[in-house]
Design goal:
about 575 residues; 5 domains; single chain; 10-stranded mixed sheet; 35 strands; 5-stranded parallel sheet; alpha/beta
Length: about 575
């Protein structure tokens, strides 16, 4: 059944208009909590979906890491918290121990102050873990990457071994510089790929082996500069070649200058010659947006898998009945959450796990019936601002606090951005909604001017002074820093990385890892829908390709007829 528009609102953040439907109102009513028999209605949001997403993402820092000191043990640690923010940070293994309890920091609610003011004051007093990487081995420089081994600068990933400089990897091995890669091995610079082996510079490819510079290829082997291929082997520019011709061309990739030349040429060539689907998705029913798989009733969702009845969300795995969520696993009945896994019936929470019937919580694990709590773990119940109450006391006090929050205009809002422990340019918000400093500060976002110290090395060499061919790179490069050809920031090559390039006959990169990540992000479409006509049949369609872009974009029906 088609949704009915109930009202159109003007976003208080960007002044754009957005619609509220009958299905939206049903959801807001469903998640409205009851205390002592009374329902406290969650109203429709005051911000548009994009501004809501931007605000949530500004509460999550994956990639910005700092050298710091554990406030408890005084050991040197790597932390996601900028030292300038003055948060109390403990090394992770100490934070998870049972010899301390965040209830010891509990506060009485002060009806003379705003809630968010009290919540932030409490947050500044409670220890935070330095990184979120449970059950890892030799992974000192990874964040939000549990169950990984021997990884370096790996973010929002899980179950990986020997992976480096990558983000959002699942069950991958021995791979470098990838973005959204699943169950793959020996891959380099892959984007949105699955089940690939020894493939280089592939995007939107599945089940490829030994492929280079390929786009939208499935079950292909030994291909170079190909797009839209299915079940092919030994092709160059979509034409059949011999094994000898393939190997001869592949051998040339050891040269950085040649590698970069053909990389740039392929990017431009595919824009003019490849066929692009309006969306990348499969096995769905009633979904909109991009990278949605095996899902049902997913409205304006991005990178969503095995989910049902979800909206305005991204990076969901096995979810049900969720609105306005980013980055999480296996939960249901959540609204305006960031990084909340294996939870249910919770609203306005960040970085929590196994949380039920809770509101405005941060860093809380394996608890239920919490109201505005931070750092609680181990089966806590009926707590407000980290203070323990009986069930009866909790049910009486919470409604009083909600009425107070209604008067201060706080009850229906996600925590204001000024209370984020991170500055805007440290967070995922900067990746998906990039701003310049002056733009961010006009929107009341904080901004960091912290400069990472230059690494201690024997010398810093400009990228353009490096030998062109991997065969000419000396072992001594491990003692140097390379000056990025774009940002001029120095970076190092680690030993596992050098071994990878040599083994696969690939050139040394000349850009800082952060810049390489931005380059990959730039090759993905924005999280925005456009009206456009199919370039084959002319039908009106929604797509993440704006109508002024030059790519050849087909509707789902025309794409399937052409490719399959």
């Amino acid at each position: 059944m088609q949704e009915k528009i109930i009202k159109t609102k003007v976003c208080t953040g960007c002044n754009s208009s957005f619609e509220i439907t009958d299905k939206d109102m049903e959801f807001y009513d469903k998640v409205s909590p009851k205390f002592n028999g009374e329902k406290f209605q969650v109203p429709s949001p005051s911000l548009c979906p994009a501004c809501r997403s931007q605000r949530r993402l500004a509460y999550r820092n994956d990639r910005s890491l700092y050298k710091s000191t554990c406030a408890l043990t005084k050991k040197s640690i790597i932390s996601m918290y900028n030292p300038d923010n003055n948060f109390i940070v403990w090394e992770q293994k100490e934070w998870w121990k049972d010899n301390w309890d965040a209830l010891d920091y509990g506060k009485e609610f002060d009806f003379g102050k705003t809630f968010f003011e009290q919540f932030f004051d409490l947050k500044k007093q409670i220890p935070h873990f330095n990184l979120f990487n449970l059950d890892t081995e030799n992974c000192e420089y990874v964040n939000y990457a549990p169950h990984c081994k021997d990884c370096y600068l790996l973010f929002w990933s899980w179950l990986n071994d020997n992976c480096f400089y990558s983000q959002t990897l699942n069950e991958c091995n021995n791979s470098i510089d990838n973005l959204f890669l699943n169950k793959s091995e020996f891959c380099y610079e892959n984007i949105d790929c699955n089940n690939n082996y020894a493939s280089v510079w592939c995007q939107n490819c599945n089940d490829t082996s030994n492929c280079y510079f390929c786009f939208d290829c499935v079950n292909t082997k030994n291909c170079i500069w190909c797009y839209n291929l299915r079940n092919k082997e030994y092709c160059i520019w979509n034409k059949q070649v011999t094994k000898e011709e393939f190997e001869l061309e592949k051998a040339k990739f050891s040269s950085y200058n040649y590698f970069e030349k053909v990389r740039k040429y392929f990017i431009e060539s595919k824009k003019k010659n490849a066929i692009f689907a309006s969306f990348t998705w499969a096995n769905n029913e009633n979904v909109s947006w991009d990278f949605v798989f095996n899902s049902k009733n997913a409205k304006n969702c991005f990178s969503t898998y095995e989910s049902e009845n979800v909206a305005f969300s991204a990076r969901l795995f096995w979810w049900k009945d969720v609105y306005d969520f980013d980055w999480g696993w296996k939960s249901e009945i959540l609204y305006e959450n960031m990084s909340n896994d294996f939870s249910n019936n919770s609203i306005w929470c960040t970085t929590c796990e196994k949380l039920s019937n809770s509101y405005y919580c941060d860093l809380c694990f394996n608890n239920e019936y919490l109201f505005w709590c931070i750092g609680l773990k181990n089966n806590k119940q009926y707590c407000i601002l980290n203070k323990q109450y009986t069930k009866e006391e909790y049910e009486i006090l919470v409604p009083k606090i909600i009425e107070h929050m209604k008067k201060t205009g706080e009850w229906w809002e996600f925590p204001p951005i000024k209370y984020s422990p991170f500055t805007y340019n440290e967070t995922m918000a900067q990746e998906y909604y990039p701003l310049k400093q002056e733009e961010a500060e006009k929107k009341w976002f904080n901004w960091s001017t912290f400069e990472q110290p230059i690494p201690k090395v024997e010398k810093i060499i400009p990228a353009n002074k490096l030998p062109d061919n991997i065969s000419d790179i000396p072992d001594d490069i491990l003692n140097w820093a390379i000056e990025c050809e774009i940002t001029k920031k120095p970076f190092r090559i680690i030993v596992q990385e050098l071994e990878f390039y040599r083994k696969h006959n690939l050139p040394i990169p000349k850009r800082h890892p952060d810049q390489r990540h931005l380059d990959r992000m730039a090759l993905r479409n924005p999280r925005k829908l456009f009206d456009r006509k199919c370039d084959k049949c002319g039908v009106d369609m929604k797509t993440t390709y704006s109508p002024d872009r030059e790519e050849i974009v087909y509707c789902e029906e025309c794409y399937n007829k052409e490719i399959y």
